């Protein structure tokens, strides 16, 4: 399709004026005079046959037509600026969209991302978090890191490592715990996976604990651990994801017993061919996991 002539100077003048609500401030940004900006906007209005601004004594009021045009231009100029930035210096920067379970992102990935950026400065990671429910296509993700059994429809899943669960609590609460049965006297914080505490009690030699009737249900281990840190109860969470809190002594693991109900996986859509940046990130992640936990992780 043949594109019509685009009056870029006029479009840029309008976009800056509409965003800043001022010809003068737009001129300062574009390094031209206020009169030059006003003239370019006037030319654009004449070309389109619409009024984009109502000129007021103390500024500009954008019209409905201008409001419709502004977000389209803003997005286009942002995308052009981003691409120019990626090409700057004769080297192409790649952007990779990664979604990760919040617990994994904060407790494991973020402390290691500086190393990845140092080794691969031309790959920019855009990291978002989720609570294990994610639509990769709708969110435009290259990768999603999830917890479970690796079975997600339409996705290729590569195992990373297990994250066994164990009770975590404040030292004050831990001082009241001599045996796993003592946990029955405390509020047990839990996730939406109802089988976690029963599985842990079974591993600890208590196969038929009473039903959990007290406590708060969380959709995030991060929120659960914050509640435990504030003394609201005992969390059942993966110690590997909270190594920094354990190192400070604010949180302790009163029992060595753990239970494993899944692992973390690196997933991508089968229909999404991996880019060079994706292959680099995948290899780096698997290498870091191997160094940290070995092949048996």
TrEMBL record:
PROSITE patterns, per database record: HTH_LYSR
Keywords: Activator, DNA-binding, Transcription, Transcription regulation
UniProt record, GO biological process: DNA-templated transcription
Keyword check for DNA-binding: yes
Protein name, UniProt field: LysR family transcriptional regulator
Domain HTH lysR-type positions: 6-63
Record keyword Transcription present: yes
GO molecular function: DNA-binding transcription factor activity; sequence-specific DNA binding
Coiled-coil ranges per UniProt: none
Homology family: Belongs to the LysR transcriptional regulatory family.
Signal peptide: none
């Amino acid at each position: 399709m043949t594109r019509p002539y685009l009056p870029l100077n006029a479009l840029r003048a309008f976009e800056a004026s509409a965003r800043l609500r001022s010809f003068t401030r737009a001129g300062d940004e574009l390094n031209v005079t206020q009169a030059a900006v006003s003239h370019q906007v006037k030319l654009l209005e004449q070309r389109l046959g619409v009024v984009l601004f109502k000129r007021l004594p103390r500024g500009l009021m954008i019209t409905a037509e201008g409001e419709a045009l502004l977000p389209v231009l803003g997005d286009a100029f942002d995308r052009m600026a981003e691409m120019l930035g990626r090409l700057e210096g004769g080297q192409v920067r790649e952007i990779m969209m990664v979604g990760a379970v919040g617990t994994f992102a904060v407790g494991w990935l973020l402390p290691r991302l500086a190393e990845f950026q140092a080794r691969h400065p031309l790959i920019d990671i855009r990291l978002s978090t989720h609570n294990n429910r994610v639509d990769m296509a709708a969110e435009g993700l290259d990768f999603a890191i999830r917890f479970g059994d690796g079975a997600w429809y339409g996705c290729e899943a590569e195992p990373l490592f297990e994250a066994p669960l164990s009770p975590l609590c404040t030292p004050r609460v831990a001082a009241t715990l001599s045996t796993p049965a003592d946990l029955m006297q405390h509020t047990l914080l839990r996730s939406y996976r109802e089988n976690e505490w029963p599985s842990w009690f079974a591993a600890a030699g208590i196969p038929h604990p009473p039903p959990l009737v007290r406590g708060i249900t969380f959709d995030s281990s991060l929120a659960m651990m914050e509640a435990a840190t504030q003394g609201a109860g005992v969390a059942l969470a993966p110690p590997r994801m909270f190594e920094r809190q354990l190192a400070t002594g604010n949180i302790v693991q009163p029992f060595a017993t753990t239970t494993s109900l899944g692992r973390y996986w690196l997933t991508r859509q089968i229909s999404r061919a991996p880019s060079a940046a994706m292959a680099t990130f995948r290899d780096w992640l698997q290498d870091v996991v191997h160094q940290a936990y070995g092949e048996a992780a």
